[in-house]
Amino acid sequence: MDIVLVGAPLDCGKARKGCLMGPNAYRTAGIANALTTLGHRVRDMGDVAPDTNDVAERDGLANLSETIGWTTALMRSARAAMKAGLPIFMGGDHALSLGTVPGVAAHAADQERPQFVLWLDAHGDYNTLETTGSGNLHGTPLAYATGQPGFRGFPDLPAAVAPGRTCIIGLRSIDGPERALMRQTELRGYDMRAIDESGVAALLGPFLDDVARAGGALHVSLDVDFLDPAHAPAVGTTVPGGATVREAHLVMELLCDSGLMTSLDLVELNPMLDERGRTAHLMVDLAASALGRRIFDRPTPRLL
Length: 304
Fold this sequence. Notes:
By secondary structure, the chain is of the alpha/beta class. Strand 4, helix 5 and strand 5 form a beta-alpha-beta unit.
């Protein structure tokens, strides 16, 4: 498979800084080598830069102009990267998905394929510019990508993702207005209780079946805070009680088994908060699991 690495060093979607170093942390953790070892052809396209614009800032919204600049640039880059292979967008905070998801959806529309989105996250990211309480725009991309109103100043979507073709797994922190908006749509959302009661395979399987039946393209957006912070500390939005390493690898291996994933976001890695690259290496391992690695591919280290 042709894999295209796209760096998106944006750090404008929230107050706590450090995610701009994420793309190089993935590179240092060996993402290209991990995927090449699996037999894929890997090309690193370098880092995207934001577009300039004359959008005025608005009270209560953080870095609106810069975020829109990243959105337009990443829409364009994502649409182009889809023509070159399976892109992995290395973030950067989750505001990058304001551009990547509409960009890959536009490519799917060009191919007359329905776009599906799997959102692996502790948060719904379903706020709009009107409902966000924090003003941090990394909490808005899924609402924007599914065509919800309330995004004045943002570009018109080249293609919207139907809410019924989206699935969030790992939820454990949702704002009140965000929850109300989510309930008005056909979006599928599963919290950690659902995982505890049913297991991730039972939740993910029916969604993947829908993608397969529709002949759809599948974008996967993996936020570091999907994982429990005990395993992945390098994120500024930690919420206890997240997915275990085993559960996360199972999700990725099920995606690999399905053969449905067409693009991937790796977001919210903040190397300033990491422990000797621990989280970066785990995220690289998860990407490798989604693209063919199995436990038997690696020797078990001898315990000394």
